[in-house]
Amino acid sequence: MSDQEISLKTINDLRLDTNKEPQRFFIAAYQRGFRWSPLQVTQLLDDIWEFTKRRDPQPEEFYCLQPLVLKAMQEGGYEVVDGQQRLTTLLLVLRHFNERLAEKYQQQLYMLDYETRQNLMEFLNAPSKQLAESNVDFFYLGQAIDVIEQWFSERESEVEEIKTALLNKTKVIWFQLADVDNPVDAFTRLNVGKIPLTNDELIRALFLRRNNAEEDEAQAMQLQIAFEWDQLEKALQSDAFWYFLSNERGKLQNRIGFLFDLVARSEGLPAEAVHDTYGIFYLFSQKLRAAGASPKHEWRKLKQAFLMLEEWFEDRALYHMIGFLVTEGMGINAIRELSGKCTKSEFECRLRQEIFARVIGGQPPEEMEEQSVRERVVEKLEALEYGPHRVKIKSVLLLFNLATLLQNCRSNIRFQFDSFKSGQWDIEHVRSVSSDKPEKPSDRVAWFGHVLGYLKSHKTQNSEEQEEQEAVSGEIEAFLKLSQPEAVNEVFDPLYEKVLAWFGEDTGEGADHGIANLTLLDQHTNRSYKNAVFAVKRQRLLELDQAGIFVPLCTRNVFLKCYSPKVDNVMFWSEADRDAYQKTIIETLVNFFVGKVEGSE
Question: Global pTM?
Answer without folding.
Answer: 0.72
